[in-house]
Amino acid sequence: MLYHLGLGGGMMRGTRIFQEAASIGVSDLMEKCEIASGVFMSLGYGMLELLELREEPPYIHLRIHRSIECELGRSAGRPFSQFIRGIIAGFATICFKREMIAEESRCIAMGDPCCEFKIKPREA
């Protein structure tokens, strides 16, 4: 349930960010992602670090430091992000205009220093 709430929220926020970016003349995808990163941090979700962004094939690799969701699940021993993973997938779906998924490979809740996600197109 948390994943789907995040997914819808990420798509709505992504649509809004893209509209506002267009209204101020921002068309570059990297700049739009930087705006989204600032919004993400201002909402208290964590500090986003973009490691890689490719438009073709669509792919994003990022880290989240101090993820509020995974900080709460410390020592769960498994990837803990559902809501934030959904937000990321929803935003990426808007970015690339195709359904994207976010997979968490490192997680604060597993003892890692940060959470790490790879976002790619959903396989058919």
List keywords for this structure.
124 residues, alpha+beta, Muramoyl-pentapeptide Carboxypeptidase, domain 2, four-stranded antiparallel sheet, 23% strand, globular
Description:
The chain has 124 residues and is α+β, with helices and mostly antiparallel strands. The chain has one domain (2-121): Trafficking protein particle complex subunit 3 (Muramoyl-pentapeptide Carboxypeptidase, domain 2, 2-Layer Sandwich), CATH 3.30.1380.20. 44% of the residues lie in helices and 23% in strands. The protein contains 4 helices and 4 strands; from the N terminus they run H-H-E-E-H-H-E-E. The protein has helices at 2-23, 29-42, 68-72, 83-96, and strands at 47-54, 59-65, 100-106, 115-121. Strands 1-2-4-3 form a 4-stranded antiparallel sheet, covered by helices on one side. Strand 1 (47-54) and strand 2 (59-65) form a beta hairpin. Helix 1 (2-23) packs across helix 4. It is globular, with a radius of gyration of 14 Å. The protein starts with a helix and ends with a strand. The model has no long low-confidence stretch (mean pLDDT 96).
